[in-house]
Amino acid sequence: MSVPPKYRAIGDFHEYYSGTRVAPYLTLFVGGNHEASNHLWELYYGGWVAPNIYYLGAANVVNFGPLRIAGLSGIWSGSDYRKPHSERLPYDFNELKSVYHQRELDVRKLLQVRTQVDVGISHDWPRKVEWQGDYEQLFRVKPFFESDAKTGKLGSPAARYVMERLRPAWWFAAHLHCKFSAIVDYDRDTDTRLGKNSPGSAGILPANEDMRGADEIKSELKIGQPPEADVLPSPEHVRNADEIDLDMDDDGPHTSILVMVTPATNPVHQGDSTEMEGVPSDLRAQLPASFAQPTQAVAAAAPRMSHPEAISNHSTHFLALDKCLPSRKFLQILEVDTISKSSSKAKKLPYRFTYDKEWLAITRAFASINPLTSPIPPDGGESHYQTLIETEEDWVEKNLVEANKMVIPENFELTAPIYDPGVGLHPREHPK
User: Fold this and answer.
1) Phi (first) and psi of residue 29, to 5 degrees
2) What is the pLDDT of residue 322?
3) Cα separation, 431 vs 365, whole angstroms
4) Please, which residues bridge with residue 27 across strands?
5) Which of 48, 275, 315, 348 could cross-link 412 (Cys pair, CB 3.0–4.6 Å)?
6) pTM of the full predicted structure?
7) DSSP letters along 55-115, please?
């Protein structure tokens, strides 16, 4: 887990993992930057981490009754975006960070979705969403956000691509440790869409950080004066000395990087070096060749994508909540009206938790691309993937839908030892 040693303490998740406690409701989540990434990696495509608690994987679309939910894990890092998932256990210092960085391949899959979803979830905020809420109040509560926001560095471009493509009714995020809401209007006038005469009009991204050209981004993403927001950021609070610092992530400064770099060129982080030095190079040299970092290659820019006719929503309600700490605004109960098309069967109670037909087809269409090894093939273009996806949708319909195999099985299994207080966090022996 990527945190300084002082924050490494056992919480209560192990009670849910062991079955001592059970989540009272189906709970879906995406991964962030302070997770047990080695365990979550075992569920790259999604899966149960405990009874009734489901991880959406690196990217996913699932259904709960008539509600269609898309998820994108991780946070943004321009230097890792076009890389494969090359991290191998045991993680060194750089891998402990890069393992939770968003990857273009996972985003590429979500950008192939051509039908409406209801809810989008990401850990990192979609870039520029702050300008579509009460940004003045946000900057009063979090003053150090302002400079990043004005230079187009706050939030994740990848999350923004996906939000702009899917246009869900709601988009939920976290990461920045404050409660904030906004309304993203996809029908703004041209000046607003281009970010003219609006705060933070430097553009969605610093130059070259996107997988497309800057001119293409400006023509697609909407930036403008914020509308009325029904939820304001949390009031300023007294800082808790034990709270994880936002800057503690140590992902380095925001830089504009076009080509992929090898791990050796990643910045060396000086803070929190105690117990974070990584695995010695001589020890790593003894590992099999499959554990080695793949050689990186320059990634080609992706082509522009047309907007699907079946995605017709005009606005998205964005909501981020605060950290789960006393006197903080970390919980809100909402009623979500569905805007996606669903069958009458999906609307029947009790709701079923099911795979998504289109997403399964997308996953099968991309199955030939190994996310672990380099080079990741360049984006083949929307028409190329659509042909593959349509073929795979026919397969899914025949072999899964018609066979009534779309319900996600409740097949959680223990894959690691249950926490033993008598042994503690740092056992001296391997599990037996």
Assistant:
1) -150, 160
2) 94
3) 39
4) 53
5) 48
6) 0.78
7) E--SEEEEEETTEEEEEE-SB--TTTTTS-----SSP-HHHHHHTTB--HHHHHHHTT--S
